[in-house]
Amino acid sequence: MATAAQAGATFGFRLIWAILLGTICIIFLVEMAGRFAAVSGHTISDGIRERFGFNAFLWPLLATLLVNLMVMSAEIGGVAIAAELATGIGFQWWALPLAFLAWLFLKKGSRRITQKMLARTASI
Questions:
Q1: Are 83 and 89 in contact (CB under 8 A)?
Q2: Span 45-88, pLDDT tens digits
């Protein structure tokens, strides 16, 4: 969101075509993946591994893991900066405790707890 806002402030609506094109591509990708899963009973990853073997499956798997790691790092960084703004303590001091809390939540949390937290957040 922050990057999109900054790009919008800098370029105005001159880059709106990239947002529209990306949205259309994601719509087609999700629709295609849904059709593939409905017909074959497999996910895209399963289909790649089954059709082309594990070596061809390994590269998309590693790319997905890398992207997930970067997204999680960005999320923890964003929360750390928000904690710095709220408390005045540097974001560097918040990063590790927040990463530990995220790990703890993922490890010990349940689907029921997550649904309750999201329901409470939505009602606020």
A1: yes
A2: 888 888 888 888 898 889 989 999 999 999 899 999 999 999 99
